[in-house]
Design a protein that fits this description.
This protein is α/β, with parallel strands linked by helices and about 300 residues long. It contains 11 helices and 13 strands. It has 2 domains: about 210 residues, 3-Layer(aba) Sandwich (Rossmann fold); about 60 residues, Alpha-Beta Plaits. About 35% of the residues lie in helices and about 30% in strands. Helix 4 packs across helix 5, helix 5 runs parallel beside helix 6 and helix 8 crosses helix 11. The chain binds adenosine-5'-triphosphate. The site of adenosine-5'-triphosphate (ATP) has 11 residues, from strand 2 and helix 1.
Length: about 300
């Protein structure tokens, strides 16, 4: 079986809030997937259901063809959840031993130390370790059962730039061995640098899903910036090849599905157009466009 997990029509409602609203997602073994979205998009709730920590109101979760609990118990699935609690007075070495005792075929302590890069501080108390090292300890614990699928909820949220880089360097060995990772992040650069595939969530729904380059190219297309005297957003938005239009002062910005068509239509309809620039929109623009609440900013 080549599938690591499959989410089908997941829904989770908290009183008035529909935190997850019909999420379907299938991830193949060996994929490294970034789950992106603004605060409150439903990433953590989706991850909780994937891990069996919350039960869906509707829909189903399959991990390696079975229930998440079975995959967790066998060690095939492991997770690093946001700010997972670590006792202050115990050492990483003690925690690794405790975790090893829970699995039938755990990695050796030496392997865990080496893979997570915690050997140097494994015998210091957790309460004395800085955030970057604590995060590597959490990573070490997630690795102990030698999982095939690792779920990380904002693994680098509290880390500075150097600690973030170190964390991803220690992850490299895991992903290079062809194992599967899903990580939630707010950092677009992390998605671009470390993921093969990006899944963008907004208001509990998946709004884009594909390779980083596909999302960048297909979703965001290109941007045209120009001075278009007298043009209104509603007139610009209906031009051929234009997906969205924004007018700010004398500057106009068009998000395009086809910039060649759009530029012809713009110059034909508004011949007085000047100061034209055409640029490739980055993942950042795609992300902002797709997750923006302003209708004129959203590329559809
Ligand atoms: N236990 C809960 N009770 C009530 N509402 C909740 C609960 N958990 C999440 N929510 C709400 O569900 C929505 C989705 O939250 P969720 O934490 O899944 O989003 P997120 O994308 O992970 O956000 P963040 O990036 O801030 O972690 C939010 O509106 C949140 O306030």
């Amino acid at each position: 079986m080549t599938e690591a997990f499959r989410l089908t029509g997941l829904v989770k409602q908290f009183k008035q809030v529909r935190a997850v609203d019909g999420v379907s997602l299938a991830v193949r073994r060996g994929e490294v997937v970034a789950l992106l979205g603004p605060n409150g998009a439903g990433k953590s709730t989706t991850i909780d259901m994937l891990l069996g920590l919350a039960s869906p109101d509707e829909g189903s979760v399959q991990v390696f063809g079975g229930a998440p609990r079975a995959a967790l118990d066998s060690g095939r699935l492991a997770a690093m959840v946001q700010n997972g609690f670590l006792l202050r007075d115990v050492t990483p070495a003690e925690l690794v031993e405790l975790h090893r005792s829970m699995f039938r075929n755990p990695l050796s302590a030496k392997e865990v130390y080496g893979r997570a890069g915690i050997g140097e501080f494994a015998r210091r108390r957790c309460g004395k370790l800085p955030g970057g090292q604590l995060q590597r300890v959490r990573y070490a614990l997630a690795l102990t059962g030698d999982p095939e699928l690792l779920i990380l909820d904002e693994p680098t949220a509290a880390l500075d730039v150097d600690a973030r880089r170190e964390f991803w360097a220690s992850m490299h060995e895991f992903t290079a061995a062809g194992r599967t990772v899903l990580f939630a992040t707010h950092y677009l650069a992390e998605a671009e640098d470390y993921a093969d595939r990006v899944v963008l969530m907004r208001h509990g729904k998946v709004v884009a899903d594909g390779a980083v380059d596909e999302v960048r190219a297909n979703v965001s297309g290109r941007l045209i910036r120009a001075v278009v005297p007298g043009a209104r957003e509603e007139d610009l938005a209906v031009l051929d090849g234009v997906a969205s239009a924004r007018v700010q002062g004398d500057r106009t910005e068009l998000g395009c599905t086809d910039s060649d068509l759009a530029i012809r239509a713009l110059l034909t309809t508004f011949p007085q157009t000047s100061s034209i620039e055409i640029t490739s929109a980055g993942l950042e623009e795609a992300f902002l466009a797709l997750t923006s609440d302003e209708p004129q900013g959203a590329l559809r």
